[in-house]
Structure formats: structure tokens, C-alpha cells
Structure prediction request, 272 residues.
Amino acid sequence: MTIDFHTHIFPDTIAEQVVEGLQKQADGKVTPAGNGTKQQLMRQMQAAGIDKAVLCPVATKPDQFESILNFSLNLLDGTAGEKAQQMLVPFASVHPASPECFKQLEKTAESGIKGVKLHPFYQKFSLGSAHVVDIMRCCRDLSLIVICHCGLDIGFPDELICTPAHVLNLHEKAAGVKFIAAHLGGWHMWKEVRRELMGEPVYLDTSVLEADLQTEDVQEILHNHPAEKLLLASDWPWCPLDKPLDMIKSLDRSDEDKALILSGNAMRLLES
Prediction:
């Protein structure tokens, strides 16, 4: 079993437009590996040998909660097709600025959806705010997984609103929350990750750009962070599915460690 814990798809009618828009926002610094549709994601999963992928939508406006939840529920219950139901694990998203965000978290948990995705840049919040700590505690109490963009963002350079230090603070103030610091704990803040998070009992996913995979800091984190706290992730369509998978397989770590990273940790989170 192989599980990619960080992918994105969009409704077929807008997928290519959304991917093109996000590429422009990044000033063309990243070339997508797909068009953002579920059909192409599943085809590429089969080609790469990936059995399941977690879908991480982002509510960029408070009023997008219901449409995203309904989209995810259609995948979860098989309305969007039996193949998608078997291969895709849809999450939901709440916007921290919504006055209904805590009720929305409760609705998400009651629906059977396993987790939510947050993105400080696209949702305009700081991971260090007291309100976000309350959201994390609510997710903990509801047993919801939280996967959150961490580090810098290619479309918002130099804004320090979700740093490794913020992640460590959340880990302490919302102890027990199933929090995953995406992009290996802090995209392009690798030295801070090594100082603040490496070795700590904090989940990191492996979603970094293809060009980042061979850098010294990334390799140091992948080789030395506890295996039980690493999750295979690509951030598709922004990175080809096979690149982080091949990287994990090539690590100088035990077969037991690799099995945890490729699926064991993911299954434990999704089943708890």
C-alpha cells in the first residue's frame, strides 16, 4: 500500500483554469505535472503505483465551506464514481475568518470526512494567532486531522505567517492535535525546520518541489526526522507523483522506516 497524503483536484469545469491561474500567481516558477482533474490524478496514481491519495482543498473564502464539503462527500460516498471512492480520500476546509468555523468543524467530523486543510496565505491568517490555537484544539477534540501549509509560499514571498516556530508553538499549546506540517515543516525554511522541528514528535509531509528534493537540508530532514512522523506527499499537480515516491524509496533508511513513510503512518492517522 502506498498513500500520497497531499494532493489537489478541482471540479472538472474549472480545473485547468484554476491551475493556470495559480501558475501565473507563482510567476511561472513552477510547471504543473497535471491539469488538476480527478481523472488525470487517478491515471497518474496508477502509473506511479500509488494506491490512495488524500485530497486537500482550500476554502479561500468563508462561504466556500459548503461547496467544498459537498464536493468531498460526493467522492466519499461514491456519487463521483466507484473508482474515485476507492482511490481518493477527500478532506474538507474551513476558513478561520468564518463566524461558523467551529460549527463547520463539527459538521465535517459528523459527515465522516477525516480532516481539513488550512492555508495561511490563501486564507490570510497567522499560524501563531490565539484563534488558530482554538481551532486546533477543536480539531483535536473532534479527532480531525489538520494538514496545513507551512513555511514560505512561492506566490507570497517573504511573509512569515506559518513558520516552523509557529508549528512548534501549536504542538505545545494544542497538544494531541493530529497536525501535519506540510512541505516538510516549512517550505524554503529548511534550516529553521532542522533547528525547531527535526526530531520533534511532529508530523511532516514530504511535499516539496522537485528541485528541492536533492538539497542538503531536505535530505538531512528526510534522513533524520523520526520515520513515524513522516508522510509521503507530492502536492500534485505541483510536483509529479513519482518524484517524492522515488526519493523515499532511495533513502538510506530501513525497510521498516520506508513502510511507515509510504503508508503506515497515513493508515494510522486515517483509521484513528
About this structure: Residues 62 and 203 are 27 Å apart (CA to CA). The chain has one domain: 3-271. The first strand starts at residue 3 and ends at 7. The chain has a mean pLDDT of 96.
